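User: Last request for today: this protein with magnesium ion, please.
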Amino acid sequence: MKIESVDFFYLSMPEVLDIGDGSQDALLVRVAAGGLVGYGECEAAPLPSIAAYVCPMSHSACKPVRASVEGQPLEDVADIRRIGDWVRENSLDLLQADHTLSGIDMALWDLLGKRLGEPVYRLLGYPKATPRLPYASQLFGDTPGETFRKAVDAVQQGFRAVKFGWGTFGKSTLEADIHQVEAARLGLGSEAHLMIDAGTVWGEDVERAAQRLPALHAAEVAWLEEPFPGGALAAYEALSQRNPRVPLAGGEGSHNFFTAAQMVDHAGLSFLQIDAGRAGGISIAHRIAVYAQARGVTYVNHTFTSHLALSASLQPYAGMEGALFCEFPIEPKLLAWELTCEHLAPNANGEILPPEAPGLGMTVDTAALRKYLVDVEIKVKGHVIYRTPELK
Ligand SMILES: [Mg+2]
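Assistant: Here's the final one, the structure of the complex with magnesium ion:
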């Protein structure tokens, strides 16, 4: 079969708030080939990613992503990898290309899985999926009291691991942060795993991050996530050496294999978090997972959007041993929730497994999504190079 069409749908909540919640809009990708369709989701600003697909060529190494995708044969896994390699070569200087490719790559795996009647993880070579302990991923409350209540709620819902992040954490005083961490631990009780996500709040300021280590250590956090932006390798490495030792997690901003590999090799990480919707899709996320595992860094998915993205994010490390956790967003916006008809839920043991259905195992709820569809037209020299397609 050949790739017949690739369509991008920009979906948005009526109001997008200035908060650390990536589920407020979405870029859904639909690929059609051989009478089948596959879906993926890009986890980056939707309009620049659409632009990267359709923009005019700037020079030979700065072609639109479209140039390397449409009309390509799609028969097996090697075809997906070849298309990715070609995008990276032809769109070398187009910095949004990896984000745009991410959703396309997911859709190609979904489509090929449907064609071959296999879940994606089996196409990646895993005979079976290993259960993961989902950590309930949510924002800090505005006050320690609110964080405490959110922690109690998550445990009552059955979660044995909970992450709090962003909000005001790291933005006011040391005491305020300590109170937030203590409230989270108090609400969870002593048994549940607690993760803290600083959302890159300290820039490269190792000392400010290090001031929080005693409180994080006392709360026995499973990890401190993103004290610094991805790529701030020296700051990560320095913090990882400080006492008391607190395991570090990071890497969600990785936008290709090499940026992720640098985090594995030079950031002193215990956990590497990869968003398949940013890093180049399932293909690159899988390559990164294999690289991290071989170097003793534990791979974890990064996902804060729909269950289509969640399924895609579980596939790259689905069969790996030793990767205990998976991120599980518990307060997505309605748009992200309504994106799929099916939803992943913890089993009787409180664990998550990827779907057994072919492809990504998710049905996109096109009828529910129409109300979120944003009308967009991009024109160059009087010619329309993109117009929002019909969602049906
Ligand atoms: Mg994070």
